[in-house]
Structure formats: C-alpha cells, structure tokens
C-alpha cells in the first residue's frame, strides 16, 4: 500500500488490478482496455468489482452491508488486454465483451483479497460509516432544535416544559406497564404536568452492554 492507500493485486500478464477503500461512499473506477481509457467501465470492471465486493461482504457478515453499499466504497483500477474487444459505441467508453470470453480469466486470489482487506481497513471504514448513519438517523428522530417536544413516540406523556428553556428542570417518570402509568398520571393531577412526564416500559429493561448501535434503534 502506498501513500494513497492503494493495494496492488497481481493477476496475470493480461490483467493488472488495484483496489482502494473509499469511506465517503463516492468511489470511482479507472479502467483501460488495450491501453484505451474506458470512462464508463464495463464488463472488465464488473468482473473485478464483483469478486472484491463478495470478499468484503463475506468478511463483515456481522455488519450486514449490502453489495451496493460496499460498491460505493470500493475503488477499482483495472488495466487489461482483451482480444477483439466489443464496445458500446465508436467512442469505446464501455466494454461489452462477456466475461466468459476473457482469456486468460481475471481471478483474484484469496490471499491478495485478504491482504487488501487488512491493508485498506475497509471493514473498519464501513463500520464507521454505518455507525454514523445510525447516529444521524437517531439525531433526526430526536431533533430538539426543530420541535420543542418529542413526537411519534407512542404512549409518551411529555412534560409541558420539556424541550424548552425550562427543560433542565423536567423529570420523566418511567413506569412498568400501562397500569402503573395510569397511576402516575393520576398523581400528576396534584404535582402538575409542567415538570413531569410519564412513559410506560414494555417488558424487561434490556442490558445494552455489548449491544451494537444498530440493534439499539430496534428496541421498543
């Protein structure tokens, strides 16, 4: 790996392949066929990318990223020699030659793919990107700047002052089930609803130690 974070994967005399991770999700490809630049890629790029994507997806099964998600974070550099190549137009920007006609074939070795996974840290980058997506979704759901009180949370009885300038003095009462919630609300007839809110819990409180962030968003 050089300073640019590019990993070279030796294939054969007709194929030269490099891979790189792109954490931002706007990966691009650079490809050549018989020395001609193919700006729109084609079957040669897909041949390499499909093998690399499969290796990445398999290596991070716990994260369960889609193939499309990984593709957007995988940069492919390909230079190959194809006999009698077929293109989509006279401009020769996209290779249409079926992969079955590649001779010799472009088969990426497992050891080289493993080296790319390790050297590029692409799995860690995908995990970081997924974590940011979860955090962004949570922030959007609980955006206090745009609305004073939380909405869309079933059975939440929020304090009247919640989310405003006086929210630091508010208390949320958590009850075990709806029956206890009704009892708490009855008590608020005396205390008042300005500083106190009530929310009933369903089932047992989950121990979130060691639980992944993506799983936390699914807890009801």
UniProtKB/TrEMBL annotation:
It is found in: Plastid. It catalyses: ATP-dependent breakage, passage and rejoining of double-stranded DNA. Its cofactor is Mg(2+). GO terms for biological process: DNA topological change; resolution of meiotic recombination intermediates; sister chromatid segregation. GO terms for molecular function: ATP binding; DNA binding; DNA topoisomerase type II (double strand cut, ATP-hydrolyzing) activity. One of its GO terms (cellular component) is nucleus. Residues 13-140 form the DNA topoisomerase type IIA subunit B domain. It holds the Pfam family DNA_gyraseB. Keywords: ATP-binding, DNA-binding, Isomerase, Nucleotide-binding, Topoisomerase. Its EC number is 5.6.2.2. Coiled coil: none annotated. PROSITE patterns: TOPOISOMERASE_II. This is DNA topoisomerase (ATP-hydrolyzing). The lineage of its organism: Eukaryota, Sar, Stramenopiles, Ochrophyta, Pinguiophyceae.
């Amino acid at each position: 790996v050089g300073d640019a974070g590019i990993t070279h994967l030796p294939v054969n005399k007709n194929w030269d392949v490099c891979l790189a991770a792109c954490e931002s999700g706007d990966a691009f490809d650079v490809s050549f066929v018989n020395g001609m630049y193919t700006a729109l890629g084609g079957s040669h790029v897909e041949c390499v990318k499909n093998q690399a994507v499969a290796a990445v997806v398999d290596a991070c099964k716990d994260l369960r990223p889609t193939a499309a998600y990984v593709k957007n974070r995988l940069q492919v550099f390909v230079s190959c020699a194809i006999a009698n190549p077929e293109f989509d137009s006279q401009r020769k920007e996209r290779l249409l030659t079926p992969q079955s006609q590649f001779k010799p074939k472009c088969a990426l070795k497992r050891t080289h793919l493993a080296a790319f996974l390790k050297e590029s840290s692409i799995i860690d980058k995908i995990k970081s990107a997924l974590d940011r997506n979860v955090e962004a979704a949570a922030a959007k759901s609980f955006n206090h700047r745009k609305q004073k009180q939380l909405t869309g949370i079933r059975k939440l009885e929020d304090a009247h002052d919640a989310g405003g300038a006086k929210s630091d003095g508010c208390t949320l009462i958590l009850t075990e089930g709806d029956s206890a919630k009704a009892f708490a609300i009855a008590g608020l007839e005396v205390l008042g609803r300005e500083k106190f809110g009530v929310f009933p819990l369903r089932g047992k409180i989950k121990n979130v130690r060691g639980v992944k962030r993506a799983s936390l968003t699914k807890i009801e």
